[in-house]
Structures are given as C-alpha cells and as structure tokens.
Amino acid sequence: MSIKLENISKTFEVSGKELKVLENIDLEIKDKEMLVIFGKSGVGKSTLLSIIGGMDTPTSGKVIVDGIDLSNLKADELAKFRKEKIGYIFQSFNLLGNLIAMHNIILPVILDVERMKKIATIKGLAQKIGMQGRLRHCPGELSLGEQQRVAILRAMINSPTIILADEPTAHLDIENSLKIIEIFEKLNKEQGVTIVLVTDHEAIASKFEHRFTLGV
Ligand SMILES: Nc1ncnc2c1ncn2[C@@H]1O[C@H](COP(=O)(O)OP(=O)(O)OP(=O)(O)O)[C@@H](O)[C@H]1O
Ligand SMILES: [Mg+2]
Q: In which element (H, E) is residue 122 found?
C-alpha cells in the first residue's frame, strides 16, 4: 500500500495564536517500504503520523493512499479504511484500563469470524516478545514497557497492510527494542506490510533503509 503526502501543512491554534507545526511536507512511502520518521521532540512526528493514518486532517495539502485522497472519504469509509488496513501504535498506548491485556489486544477482532486464528497467532507473537505471562493483567498492573508491547500486539491482531508506529520502543530496553524491530522486518519481508515508524533514537532509526527527517 503506497502513501503520498502532497504539500502537507498543519497549524494549531493555541490561545488565539497560530502554531505552525508542519510546513509543506512532501513524502512518498512506496508499497512494502519500511520508513523511519526521525526528529527531535516537538517537531511534529506524532502529528504527521496521525495525518498519515487519517486520524487528524492537515490544514492544507493532500494525503493519498493507494491513489485515494483521504479527504474524499466519508466518515464511515475512513473508519473502515483505518480498521481494515492500519495497525496504529499510539505513543501513549491508548489501552482500556479496566480490560486485561489480552482483551485489549483482541478487542478489534471480537466480532471477526476468523478471530480464533488471529488470537492463536497473536499468542505466538506475545511469546516471542516475552509477554505470554502478562496477558491476564490490566494495564495498571503492567510496566510501561509491558503496556507498550500490549499496544504493539493490538496493532498487529488484524493483520494490517500498514503499521504506523509512534515511538513503539520508547519504553523498552535495547534487547526488547530490537526484537520489536525484527518482528516489523519479518512482517515487511514475509507479508509485505508497509512499516512507518517514528523515533528520535539513532540506534533504532539506523535499522531502516529509508528515512524522513523532520525539523532540519
Ligand atoms: N492538538 C494540539 N493542539 C495544539 N498544539 C498541538 C496539538 N498537538 C500537537 N501540538 C503541538 O505541536 C507540536 C508537535 O507535536 P507532536 O506531538 O507532533 O511532536 P513530536 O515530534 O511527536 O514530539 P515527541 O517526540 O515529544 O513525541 C508541539 O509543539 C505540540 O505542542
Ligand atoms: Mg510524538
């Protein structure tokens, strides 16, 4: 799945003042590419990722996914696109506090006819990233790194075509970070999943062939 950003700008209004966060961004992410969005804190990485994922709209410019301009989609079409195609890993996880980890992970596929197969696959992945013993705990009983891995598993449950990952290794040690990157690489190579990952860590960014640097 290809993504094209054309002349994207984003301005927020804060206390009556305009805050320009993104200015005239052009970016092409080819089908089956692995791209890292790199830059310091506050440069607009999360803002850009949420625009790519159709969760926020740019002030001007276009987001074109597989030839379709996202601004032309109706709300329900956009919701369907997000549900079926995108696995989004939020920087702040967005887990439901009163559900155990496993239920957070399987929530997106609870009505899916193929859910048993998907749950079995995700249990295998959980094992690989050291989470198998933690799945019956609520987020409040998990460490930040464990919550982060729950958010990663949830993004993968629906076999997305694109994974948009906002600093998915920020709370992990280097060993676990590299395990996550390896899983992304495997999904990319074996299933052709397009990966867009945000980080401000050179050690993580250097694993990627394609890099887009914000804020220079
Ligand atoms: N909804 C909003 N309203 C007003 N300002 C916002 C909003 N969202 C983001 N900003 C501002 O836009 C700028 C970029 O924020 P963003 O979260 O995209 O940065 P980031 O590069 O992801 O930073 P970090 O590495 O710390 O996560 C910041 O100055 C932030 O305060
Ligand atoms: Mg951010």
A: helix 115-128
Cβ neighbours of 215 (radius 10 Å): 13
Is 43 touching ligand 1 by the criterion CB < 6 Å? yes
Q: Does residue 14 line the site of ligand 1, with CB under 6 A?
A: yes
**Residue-wise pLDDT tens digits, 111-160:** 999 999 999 999 999 999 999 999 999 999 999 999 999 999 999 999 99
Q: Which of 23, 36, 43 to probe ligand 1 with, by most ligand atoms within 8 A of CB?
A: 43
Residues 84-121 have pLDDT tens digits of 899 999 999 999 999 999 999 999 999 999 999 999 99
Q: Is the CB of 203 under 6 A from ligand 1?
A: no
CATH (domain of 68):
3.40.50.300
Provide the number of structural domains found in the chain. 1
Pick from 45, 65, 31, 34: nearest CA to 210? 34
CA angle (52 as vertex; 172, 21 as ends), nearest 5: 85
The pLDDT tens digits of the residues spanning 11-37 come to 999 999 999 999 999 999 999 999 999
H or E element at residue 213: strand 210-213
Instruction: Give the single-character DSSP code of 170.
Output: T
Ligand nearest to the CA of 48: 1
Could you identify the atom of ligand 1 that is nearest to the CA of residue 39? 21
How far is the centre of ligand 2, averaged over its atoms, from the C-alpha of 92 (Å)?
9
Which domain covers residue 146, as residue numbers? 3-213
Evaluate whether 131 touches 150 at the Cβ level (below 8 Å): yes
